[in-house]
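Field reference: sequence -> structure
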Amino acid sequence: MVSLCYRSRMTLPALPKQPSQVPWPAQDWPTGQLRDVDRAAFNDLVGEAFAAKVTPNLGETHALLVVQGGQVTFERYGDGFDAASTHHSWSMAKSITQALVGFLVKDGKLDISAPADVPAWRGDARAAITLDHLLRMSSGLKFIEDYAPGGGPSDVIAMLFGEGKDDVAAYAAAQPLEHAPGTFWSYASGTTNIVSRIASRALGAYGADFERFMRERLFEPLGIRSAIPKFDDAGTFIGSSFCFMTARDFARFGLLYLRDGAWDGQRLLPEGWVDYARRPTFQQAGVDANRYGAHWWLDFGGRGSFSANGYDGQFIIIVPERDLIIVRHGVTPLALKENLKAWLGKLAASFA
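Structure field:
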């Protein structure tokens, strides 16, 4: 029996419905004019992003897309990019992985409150880790999430590009427990790849078979045609980092969540699953990070917003109270990360 503990009684901003006169973008995106926006502030921010191929405050901006009320109301690309260009998801893929788990919860194949199905953990303290702990980055497992070159040991680099790349989930699952599950929040890409392997085990599908599941349940219903998910040699979707799409297709994924997991009259994700994604996770005092939900970040577009965030400045920001989605792709160095965060907050705030 599937647990419904992911349902939340916490008051969250209501998720708006698709306006009756606006078609769903299963084929082409409907377009409209920018509205309810401080045009001067918006234009200044866009001008800053596209002032040069590489700007001093934001680095490179490759794509910027705004969706309001289900319509694309602004779209601009940097030099060498256009609407057909695919962009690196990096960690935005984590939020895609959360959706895949949602389908399996809906099918009765996974229970997020049950111990995670990781055979290597049976018989030791890690057996207490639940799927919910993993989705909330609260497993307690050791994992060094460090991308800085020459910055010392990095489990994420070893997992994606070094000794762990052939079986990313096995590398991550082999890490020892440093904290009791549920007591310590620590963002870790290895966690998502463990979740991805759990999804494959629940479905009994790996590699091409799992990709078929992704296309049938997620990409095809939304009209996403550009998606290129990547798998390791063990057949695990590298859900921490690797799914390429166009900006418009990333916006389609964002619209699924803005519309509470329903699409054109059909419920794709379980009822309450999007609220589960945006319900804040416990984070210990002193954490130098934004609030986190369940494989989605919170507040990058203002209080009540939630977002899929990726390395180098990839974002799908969802602002329910404004029926707004902002998609941004580019290459923003880590040293400019806070600049981009502030810029995105100002961009979202420019909408009334």
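Note: The CA atoms of residues 62 and 80 lie 8 Å apart.
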